[in-house]
Write a sequence for this structure.
């Protein structure tokens, strides 16, 4: 894998040539409050002024764990179909399968309320590194220091949330090098306005996922309401009338989930040797199970689909990440970079005294993590209990206990600042199919038994019975499907939990102590060392290079940039856009069979379409999972597309950015309008989007 | 069962004739701060002045759950051998069995430190009824009111304990009619000075237990140290030089555990129909098991003895209580008394409105209690886990959780005011014999499986295995025998518990939630109704009769009185004292075989004894379990004996006092001195006791 080097960058970055891997070309998921203004000015002659940045930030939203943007002054939000998929499926049933038919609310009255969906708008960012790290006092040990930071964060989040009425979250950047307070407005009245059919949203299915050229209309539209009325907002993205041109500078504003570019070698090795192999084999096992289940019938296939998409998507993503780590050249570069940084530290006695041990301590923490990675994954991360019942059961059990503790003493997901969201998600109905749950749970219990069968709790759980017997008993003995039942546990607190005879609650109670023990090991033996030493490494970096290197992704709003351009793959030039013509061709070439089967709307309205309109395009802007649904805009902050994927070469950029062949993939704004008008007959929606009414 | 009526009592009690059963002759376990001064003056011409009362109170101590007294200015404490038995057994081993050989420390250096023994001296009593009941606000429901009282009590105990440095406990009297704050000095450096052999302490064994005539030298002596020195106290009981005469007024000052004279019919029926039958059959089962185990060999018999005494003692006691409840005449009297009181209430519209429903509400609560009595007993009261490992395991698990809560939110036994005692008891070593534990646990698990086998947790625990397999796994998988291990859990808190792989800790974790659920049901469905309505009935009684009726026993210090006198049984006159002559005769008559086998000291020194010296005597003073070890004194507050038992007729006085045949049984002060001098060659000890040095 060839890497381009930073060029034409300001003085401080010249030093970075020492650490060749650290910043390349259009690399970077930048903080909105530390945007690369100079870089953009010098490289692209673009002045990213504060007004521009603020408008883009307030027009961008967080949608579930992913991204979206306001595209009208009346609270219309555009995201990917696959980002809105959970909500769309929750509104579906055997009789009315919106995944299959698509949906369009021609009037506001027809818009469908989505339960459990939250949209967060980032109102403000404040640097709180001083107050947070100030909680660490001289002489504190690693764990004590991590706990002090954790408590300071908890206190700040609680106080800020209460004071401002906004959701306030402290974001840990550079592994503890910086702490920023994010204040979000949380909007929870979200209604479905428009969804395409799954067949066109995910045209090409799993085989084409993470590939390019691509022909997906991966789009859905929602509307945010406030006090029963559509949200009025001055901050929305105007639609670019002309779309994007080849070579044009574009920006992507979204919530990349997690990258590992600043991870130490020790951390990368843990991922490569322990975490990813486990995850990949686990996902494969689940994929096979769901394929098997899908074969039972159409309804079973519909039910399995919900899980299948996520599993196959993750499988491809993680396999791609792992391919990076298995790439010797990449790892050698990583080693060389780390060595160079350590060498620079070692040359200065003061730096060596301060930072010298950080890498080894992180490596030791990884060794410890590897020793309990499996039980931690199976129990604390719920891998052993693959059923939608277990999550709520455990949340109810933990919430009831945690609520009785002072805010700062709680597991962090149950602190006051998060309680409203936790409760909303607990009380959001979604269809549950018990036979499907039994199948999934049976399989994961079998795995659990194989892997952790010697654990006392697991022995008790099985007691000589088969995984299937246990799974059936657990699923048929729970009433957590009923939202009213969940509510009664929420209201009844720990006492209601103690009195419960619900099998899933009992299971969660059985597992909770050992699971909490693993959680505590993780926090003390791994996380605390990462926080302490990650911060040290970050400070070493700052000293040597300033903050010219953006922090790794943290599921929070970032700005990336790049140019719309094609690339060469296997000697073949891949153009930067695709068109509807390509879509029809590819479908025909594959006999219009799944996953290349066009929905009836697309076959019926084919002649109405201008087939040369661009459907998807690629650009070099930096992205990763979580960026799905991110608005992509031009210099005028006009919407030119919605990011929905990366090509396969993009996956290893989790660890090292490169822009020769890796690309983000977008739905083209022009294709969206063309389809809305010609295929879906959605002129009022287009008028709203284009500001024509 | 004939009852004598109150006679010659002051005006207000005349009214009591309506309620014939409420107070009889020398009835009463009186509060030291509400002593029956007038009654004593009128009936016995005795002026119980405050100085006398204070001296007796401060000379009396609480020893474990029972009673004792200071008998020298140097902290010497006299109690029953069976009260000190736990401490004596803890100091014993296969090689040095103090139970068998007895013990005498001829010098202070030889005194043996007892771990886990606490002596409490009641410093002060304060009426806090106002502040406690003031926590109940108008409009509060039954449970809410009980919780408000509970929290007020918790807050007061914590605050008072912290402020005074004393152990402060609020005592609930008359089922919530009055609340008194007791301030105790807690002394925990307690050393064994003298113990007789088990054979003479419990001469006649289980067959003679709760009978009279009796020949037991049920005595042991301890010394309390403070700051490494023997405690100096002006409050100790002088020894009566002449002992007690027939017909003489005597007083008993001790900690009766629990009586049920003011219980409603509903509560008595619960005991008769649910609680006692369960307890009796359970105790019988355990008795049989221990007898079986004892047959395996001498060492097994020694080990079993420790449990056997308590079991047989309880069995006889509870069987005796139950005999009262099964006595139709007694229950008819109870019904008549309750009817009379309810009638008196009903005649007055205001009283009826205030108190009318109290009895029925208590009865309803008992019905509810009966419905979960078994799981409550097996799980929350540990009956299903008959092993000394389970108690500490559960305490560790609960303590770790409860400590993270605010004081008033905790289960009451884990509040700050009790924490020091709880921890001391956890860290007191006592010998544990695993094979014995497996035998006991196996049996109780078998019972648990039979009774609660359908409960999810119990299914999990067994998982198709036999009780013996499970018991063996649990006992061999725990390290709680090691006090250092317990300490590490205490220090490690909830996290250490969560990380534990100790089988007993895991068992406690498995059972705890369901057990807590039952506890909560008990507190809300039973106890709250009893507190509310018990207090109402008490207030009705106060209105109609003042506080001329003492409250039921509450394991706190009480004063009772009566006369030393014999009685007639089956037409035979039973004299009020027995002598050493009787002891030797009875032993000979029974071939000197257990339980009538005399220890070697008594056979060897027989000729040295003055065999006509009184050994035991009886009196009419009111007592019940918990009074064991109580000093019995004359008008001058001089020690004339130590209460150690009641005759069999005494047992139903748990519910109705009577004095024609029921008697408390004491070791005579003269017999103690005679044995110490002639049998045990303990002149220095006698000199100390008699103040001769």
């Amino acid at each position: 894998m060839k890497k381009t080097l930073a060029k034409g960058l300001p003085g401080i970055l010249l030093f970075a040539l020492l650490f060749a891997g650290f910043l390349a070309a259009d690399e970077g998921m930048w903080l909105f409050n530390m945007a690369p203004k100079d870089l953009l000015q010098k490289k692209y002659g673009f002045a990213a002024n504060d007004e521009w940045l603020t408008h883009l930030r307030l027009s961008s939203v967080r949608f579930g764990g992913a991204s979206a943007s306001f595209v009208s002054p009346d609270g219309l939000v555009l995201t990917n179909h696959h980002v809105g998929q959970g909500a769309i499926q929750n509104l579906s049933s055997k009789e009315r399968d919106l995944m299959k038919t698509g949906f369009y609310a021609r009037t506001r009255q027809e818009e469908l309320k989505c339960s459990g969906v939250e949209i967060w708008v980032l109102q403000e960012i404040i640097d709180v590194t001083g107050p947070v790290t100030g909680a660490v006092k001289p002489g504190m040990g690693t764990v004590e220091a991590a706990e002090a930071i954790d408590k300071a964060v908890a206190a700040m989040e609680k106080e800020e949330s209460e004071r401002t009425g906004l959701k306030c979250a402290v974001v840990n950047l550079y592994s503890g090098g910086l702490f920023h307070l994010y204040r979000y407005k949380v909007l929870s009245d979200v209604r479905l306005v428009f969804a395409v059919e799954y067949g066109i949203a995910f045209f090409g299915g799993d085989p084409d996922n993470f590939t390019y050229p691509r022909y997906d209309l991966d789009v859905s539209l929602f509307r945010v309401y406030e006090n029963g009325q559509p949200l009025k907002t001055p901050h929305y993205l105007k639609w670019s009338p002309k779309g994007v041109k080849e070579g044009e500078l574009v920006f992507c504003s979204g919530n990349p989930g997690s990258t590992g570019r600043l991870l130490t070698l020790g951390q990368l090795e843990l991922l490569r040797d322990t975490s990813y192999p486990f995850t990949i084999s686990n996902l494969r096992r689940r994929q096979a199970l769901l394929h098997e289940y899908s074969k039972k019938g159409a309804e079973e296939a519909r039910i399995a689909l919900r899980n299948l998409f996520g599993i196959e998507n993750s499988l491809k993503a993680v396999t791609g990440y792992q391919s990076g780590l298995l790439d010797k050249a990449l790892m050698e570069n990583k080693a060389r970079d780390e060595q160079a940084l350590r060498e620079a530290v070692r040359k200065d006695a003061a730096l060596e005294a301060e930072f010298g041990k950080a890498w080894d301590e992180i490596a030791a923490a990884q060794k410890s993590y590897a020793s309990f990675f499996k039980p931690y994954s199976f129990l604390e991360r719920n891998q052993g209990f693959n059923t939608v019942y277990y999550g709520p059961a455990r949340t109810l059990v933990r919430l009831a206990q945690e609520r009785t503790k002072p805010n700062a003493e709680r597991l962090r997901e149950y602190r006051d600042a998060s309680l409203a969201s936790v409760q909303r998600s607990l009380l959001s109905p979604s269809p549950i199919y018990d036979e499907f749950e039994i199948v999934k749970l049976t399989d994961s219990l079998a795995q659990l038994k194989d892997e952790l069968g010697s654990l006392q709790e697991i022995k008790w759980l099985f007691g000589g019975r088969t995984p299937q017997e246990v799974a059936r008993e657990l699923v048929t003995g729970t009433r957590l499907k009923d939202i009213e039942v969940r509510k009664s546990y929420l209201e009844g607190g720990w006492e209601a939990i103690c009195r419960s005879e619900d099998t899933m609650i009992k299971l969660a109670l059985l597992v909770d102590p050992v699971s909490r023990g693993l959680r505590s090991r993780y926090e003390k033996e791994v996380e605390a060392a990462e926080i302490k030493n990650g911060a040290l490494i970050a400070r070493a970096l700052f000293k040597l290079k300033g903050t010219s290197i953006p922090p790794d992704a943290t599921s929070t709003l970032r700005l990336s940039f790049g140019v719309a351009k094609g690339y060469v793959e296997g000697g073949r030039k891949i153009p930067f856009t695709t068109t509807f013509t390509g879509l029809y061709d590819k479908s025909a070439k594959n006999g219009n069979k799944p996953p290349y089967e066009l929905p009836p709307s697309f076959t019926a309205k084919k002649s109405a379409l201008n087939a040369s309109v661009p459907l998807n395009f690629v650009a070099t802007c930096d992205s990763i999972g979580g960026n799905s649904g991110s608005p992509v805009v031009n210099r005028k902050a006009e919407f030119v597309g919605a990011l929905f994927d990366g090509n396969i070469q993009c996956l290893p950029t989790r660890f090292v950015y490169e822009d020769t062949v890796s690309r983000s993939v977008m739905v083209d704004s022009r294709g969206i309008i063309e389809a809305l008008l010609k295929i879906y007959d959605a002129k009022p929606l287009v008028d709203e989007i284009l500001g024509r009414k």
Observations:
- Chain A touches chain B at residues 401, 404-405, 409, 456-457, 459-465, 477, 494-495, 497-501, 503, 506, 509-510, 513-514, 516-517, 520-521 (CB under 8 Å).
- The longest helix of chain A spans residues 503-545.
- The radius of gyration of chain A is 25 Å.
